[in-house]
Amino acid sequence: MQRLRRNWGSSLLVGAALALLLGASACTDDLYASCSLEAGSRCEDPSQTNISCVEEQNLQCETQVCARYEGSDPYCTTTCEVDDDCTAGVCRIFSPFGSSTGYCVEESDA
C-alpha cells in the first residue's frame, strides 16, 4: 500500500509539472503583431504620417499596448528601458505629452 502511495505521489508531481509546461507553452507572444487603434483617435489618423504614439489598455495585445512608430502600421508592443528588453527590436522613446517612456520597436521599423 505504501508503494502505491509513493508511486501515486510521483505520478501527481509529474502530471502537475507537465500541465504547467503545456500551459506555459500555450501562451503566445504577440510582440510586434498587428493591432487596431481606437477609431477617431489622434494615433489612428492615417494623415499623421510621422506620428509616434501609444494606446494603452488595448485588449487586442497581451501587453495591452498598441502603438505606431513614426507612422508605421499599428503593432503590439511593451515598455522598455534598453534595447536588450526588446526581442528582435530596439527601445525607442515615445514622447507624447512630455512622457519619456520607451517602447519596443521592431528593427525593420526603427
CA-CA gap between termini = 65 Å
Structural class: alpha+beta
Major β-sheet strand ordering: 1-2-3
Radius of gyration: 21 Å
| Range of strand content | 15-25%
Largest sheet at a glance?
3 strands, antiparallel
H-E order: HEEEEEE
Q: Which spans have pLDDT < 50 for at least 5 consecutive residues? A: 12-27
Fraction of residues in helices? 10-25%
Number of helices: 1
User: How would you state the average pLDDT, rounded?
Assistant: 77
Q: What would you call the shape? A: globular
Strands, count: 6
Provide a quick synopsis of the model.
The chain is α+β, with helices and mostly antiparallel strands.
Which characteristics define this entry?
110 residues, 3-stranded antiparallel beta sheet, alpha+beta
